[in-house]
Automatic annotation (TrEMBL):
Annotated organism of origin: Panacagrimonas perspica
Catalytic activity: L-glutaminyl-[protein] + H2O = L-glutamyl-[protein] + NH4(+); [protein]-L-glutamate 5-O-methyl ester + H2O = L-glutamyl-[protein] + methanol + H(+)
CDD domains, per the entry: CheB_Rec, REC_CheB-like
Stored SMART domains: REC
Protein family: Belongs to the CheB family.
GO molecular function terms noted in the UniProt entry: phosphorelay response regulator activity; protein-glutamate methylesterase activity; protein-glutamine glutaminase activity
KW Phosphoprotein (keyword) present: yes
Annotated domain remarks: Contains a C-terminal catalytic domain, and an N-terminal region which modulates catalytic activity.
UniProt KW keywords: Chemotaxis, Cytoplasm, Hydrolase, Phosphoprotein
Name of the protein in its database record: Protein-glutamate methylesterase/protein-glutamine glutaminase
Length: 352
């Protein structure tokens, strides 16, 4: 099997050296080159034709976002962003995902050499996933070519929508939310994302959607017209308080290596909302959420997964499909409308 050719772009000579050494230890990867800035990277891309690019968020000589935008317009290829755990780094990374980057990793906060092993392991896994991923095509305005569904008004106070996503999910979630009217049923979301990134992500979604979007807080009442995103490093569950739905947060052990976990959220919705809920799994690496979506379908809920053709990575939706958890398999542009249609329809019958 051909090795995945990787070009490492980072302004730190130490970082380039460490990453090259660690990535080269994996027999499936070949670091074909390293570049200290985007201008050198541009020439090396032409010379070396890498399969995947790792790109530091903060780069000298050319703004990293400008470089990424030009790259995705002229030579679309899988890019994994390397981000710092700062508010500025989070915002820049979310912009990079909007421009077409496949995924991102965050640098260790302190003691780079000691923390590089765990960091490199995560980067290695995401490089392999990126090599198989579908790179989103963006038009000249920087807007995803996958258009949001047209909005239609809906009035209901009884339904609840639960969504799980991972790799490629920040943009897939945006496309779904942009298809929702302001008075849509409440939506709860588990997206695999670091703690420093979930609040900027929620704020970003709030600015572009008709619904009100927030990072969920413990004990917060779930009401129509609002979207609740699980904070990074916290599990989000939906529980009942009389006739109301309430957010419950905890830091119990990661599930499927993730916190927040999509399985945790979806299973709680199956248990506490039953046939009043609709579940969806969007693009993502791994299998988190598959068993939770199956629990929802077995509880009588309608369930949807994103199809392979429009997914950046069809790991999570594909796993749900294999388990028989998906009632419908739909392209991303149709999911918002389908969720709304199911909200006004009759509850799903039990899969049993």
């Amino acid at each position: 099997m051909n090795r995945i050719k990787v070009l490492v772009v980072d302004d730190s000579a130490l970082m380039r050296k460490l990453l090259t050494e660690f990535l080269e230890r994996d027999p499936q990867l070949e670091v074909v080159g390293a570049a200290p800035d985007p201008l050198v990277a541009r020439d090396k891309i032409k010379q070396l034709s890498p399969d995947v690019l790792t790109l530091d968020v903060e780069m000298p000589r050319m703004d990293g976002l400008t470089f990424l935008e030009n790259l995705m317009r002229l030579r679309p290829m899988p890019v994994v962003m390397v981000s710092s755990l700062t508010e500025r780094g989070a915002e820049t990374t979310l912009q990079a995902l909007e421009l077409g980057a496949v995924d991102f990793v965050t640098k260790p906060k302190i003691d780079l050499e000691a923390g590089i092993r765990q960091y490199a392991d995560e980067l290695t896994a995401k490089i392999k996933a990126a090599a198989r991923a579908r790179v989103r095509v963006v038009d000249k305005s920087g807007v995803s070519a996958i258009r949001p569904s047209p909005r239609k008004m809906l009035r209901t106070t009884e339904r609840l929508i639960a969504i799980g996503a991972s790799t490629g999910g920040t943009e897939a979630i945006k496309d779904v939310l942009m298809g929702m009217p302001a008075d849509a049923p409440a939506i709860v979301i588990a997206q695999h994302i670091p703690a420093a990134f979930s609040a900027p992500f929620a704020a970003r979604m709030d600015r572009c959607c008709a619904m009100r979007v927030c990072e969920a807080t413990d004990g917060q009442q779930i009401v129509p017209g609002h979207v609740y995103i699980a904070p990074g490093d916290w599990h989000l569950r939906v529980v009942r308080d009389g006739a109301r739905y309430v957010c419950r947060l905890d830091q119990s052990s990661p599930v499927n290596r993730h916190r927040p976990s999509c399985d945790v959220l979806l299973k709680s919705v199956a248990e506490n909302a039953g046939t009043n809920a609709i579940g969806a799994i969007l693009t993502g690496m791994g299998d988190d959420g598959a068993r939770g979506l199956l629990a929802m379908r077995e509880a009588g809920c309608h369930t949807i997964i994103q199809d392979e053709a429009t997914s950046v990575v069809w790991g999570m939706p594909g796993s749900a499909f294999k388990l028989g958890a998906a009632e419908q398999v739909l392209p991303l542009p149709r999911i918002a409308d389908a969720l709304l249609d199911l909200c006004v329809g009759t509850p799903a019958r039990s899969a049993a």
